[in-house]
Amino acid sequence: MSKILLKRILQKMMFTLFWCVILQLHASARNEIVKLPSMLRIADEVTGRVTEASGKPLLDVTVQIKGSAISMVLTDVDGKFLLKADKGDMLVFKIRGFKTQEIAFTGQKQINVTLLEDTSPPDSFNVLYASQKKSTNLEAVSEIRTEDLTKTISSPIYGTLTGRLAGLATYQGSGEPGNDGVTLNLRGMSPLVLLDGIPQTFTSINPEQIESVTILKDALATAMMGIRASNGLVLITTKKGMEGPQRIGFKAMYGFSRPTQLPRTLDAYNYAQLYNEALVNDGRPAVYSQADLEAYRDGSNPFYRPNVNWQNEILRNETPYSRYNVDISGGKQTAKYYVSLDYLDQQGLFKENDLSINSTNSNYKRYVFRSNVSLDLSKYITTSLNLFGRLQNGNEPGVTTGTLYNSIINTPANAYPIFNANGSLGASQDFQQNNVYGQNFMSGYLVDYTRDFRVDLAVKADLQKLTPGLWFRALSAINTYLVQTTNRSKPLVAFLQGVDGSGNTVYTQYGTPADQSNSLTTSNQNRVFYVQGEFGYDRKFGSHQLNALVLANNDYRMANADLPYSIKGISGRLAYDYQEKYMAQVSFAYNGTSERYAKGYGYGLFPAVGLGWNIKKEAFLQDKAKWINDLKLRTTFGRTGNFNPNNYYTYNQYYNTSGVPGYNFGVNTGGNVTGIEQGALANPMLTFEKANKFNVGFDASMFNNKISLTAEYFNNNYFDLLQQIGYNTQITGAVYTNRNLGERSYSGFEFQLNYNNNIGDFNYFIAPNFSTVRTRVVFADEPTRQFAYQTRTGLPVGQSFGYQAAGLFQTQAEINASPKPVGLVVVPGDIKYVDQNGDNIIDENDQIAIGRTAPALNFGLNLGWSYKGFDFSALLQGVANNDIFLTGNSYWDFQGVRGQAYEHHLNRWTPATATTASYPRLSVGTNVNNQYASNYWLRNGDFLRLKSVELGYSLPINWVKKVKASGARFFVNGTNLFTITGLENQDPENYFNAYPIQKMLIAGISVKF
Asked: Where does 791-947 have alpha helices with state H?
């Protein structure tokens, strides 16, 4: 039987071969080409070399015949390849990071190809625990990549996000090196930050090591974080090695910074003149004679009538800034790596001299190391090892940066001379050991050492042998954080110069000389141990795409001396789409902690669901609206949680003995029995806060993707918020703990647009974004108030309350005819308030909601162009409909002991300036009537800031090829260069005399090899 079967097979093969020969001869006679079956063709050999634009050979480029799964080779270290192909075949050259190129084979013996770097935006988002295609994404996310992060100069990575992402607002309260006070606000809340999927607190890292920063805003995007998801997430994803040739990048920047704004204080003459006026206004005698005033004006008596400009004496006009970065990446299919080294040196504003060997300036140095390596252990198992290390050294004067800067601003020009006649430090009775010069140069120094180290180890197994698309991944991470301070401060000794009864100069000493301190303290020590295991399934069944993920994790944390806690649980995601037209996704988490809540109250289920519809995929729109490239509608809803680790065992009832008076029983017993008292009242039902979140949005692109836009509406309801009960009573004498009582709503709109186009070689873009958040107190367990206008429920969250000012009193007759606070002496020039309840008395019953109740509008405008080798970009950022209060030592007159006075006090009320004055009458110390919380001190906080601007020039490729480089770019960058605001002599973000925000001008070079 087998012989017969073999015979028939041979016969058919001979018959087929015979007709192939006949057809070939016939085609040759007619000069036509007829393709034979591939196993019978005699293919031609083609060789070639693949390089990048600089001429550098590209390793492991895939060279493949289009449509063939087996005709494929990889280039060698010289970029060379050898492949057999037939005429008419299409050769495809492909490697990650470069644009794919196709070349038709027409019989050439050699094909040399130059691949261009692919700078087009990625087609996916980095989301929580995964990467999500933009075309099927249902989550409310926004993302920026490295090239945008590097355009704003900021040591914390938060500062680079300002104005670039709809929904995310940043606020910078300080410009102190290494302690830039940048905070994040995501849809009205403070988001949780994750570094490569693991919650992380530190963010002072270099932007070059970051692949993307993604903000996750709705329940579907954050549900898998469960008990820590309510405030939204900021996901930082670091760069990984890519298959391809070794790439070396070097970037150097150097420049200068100076304050955006400094407080404008008065000189000694104006200060003394206004101080006299304030004393007289208070019914007290003036302390400065006319001779004193003249001496302050002409400087004729510098030891007894000094006039010191402390800002000029202590602060530098500008401070240097430098940063250098080197990164190396590359690899083959089996091993890939990315390594980054970064060094930053930012100096502070304080002057230095030769009196101290060690620096007393507020300086900051940072060293960052990043290594991400992946290795294929086999065809089915991949491992990755990520290392991160950061060293930070901060230096400051012995009295600390904050104390010195406050002394500079708050010390009047006439307080004391810098030096006395004998060269000793000057002092006065009001300012004894506070000599600002001595604080800066002679108080020693403090050195802060911060050490961070993190290791991530992951193993991923491809389980396609069990079923295609199935995989498993295990991850473990360890992070340690340590802050230590070396204290080498020393006390100041200052002297008050005076004259005794005989006319001799005498000195009164303040302070006692002592040796310099030398101590080391640990101020912060945190440790994190994180483990995670996950199963994933990614499979396509015809037109149906299915992606599933289930994971379990345990996040164990220890902070200083606090008892540790761990957050653990399971979570998952299931996403489905049909032809990328109809989409659905479900996410969930069941997690929590048992260390901060009673049993049964620490864990919860957090589900979320999303639906989407890409209308562009519908037949009725594909042909009728070809100018629309994409139009997707999506909506999500879900529940999330919010966990506060500071809820420190308040569900237990404790009793105190410390500090409790004892008891004596009987007379002369000679003994005392320790007493005991009840501590704070326990809340055994204490649990985490929760939120129900709704989001609807659409994504569209038009006109060949020249225009793309995203719009969102959200409505988030937060409940079980921790608050004090409204009817606390002191009868029991006990302290009340928080209860899960409050409810608030946050709703708003977000809009982000990108427009890209070109006119010949001139390319340009514009990308505006804006967002607004309307908040409302749905329920607050507040006491019953006598007047409805004082009820907090129903008003915006954090609504300010105070008195409504009605200008300034001009005459005593007006005062006599008007309501006034009881027990206060009010005189002309004081603030007049509106009597809200009509009882002819100004008291707490007259306080109302003050300030605008409409939500603030945060916006940004990113724009730029490129022409041949030149490129330009700028970012405008700001806030509209924003109110701020100007109060306290930074704005009021003569606060505390011989407090400061500022230029705006020159426009105070006097009988002569009654109609033009913008400030009440002057007073020394506390003026109760004028310093009530009121809308008199409310100011328009709107501003527009040129956050960053950069101009660059890339050298022609044929120039850089001569030094074996693939690219070189010179650039000049400016940050915070100017601000438009209605505030006078105030920065709209730092208006309380903190260390000033810096504007910077930087020049740099970036070279790639």
From this structure: 812-816
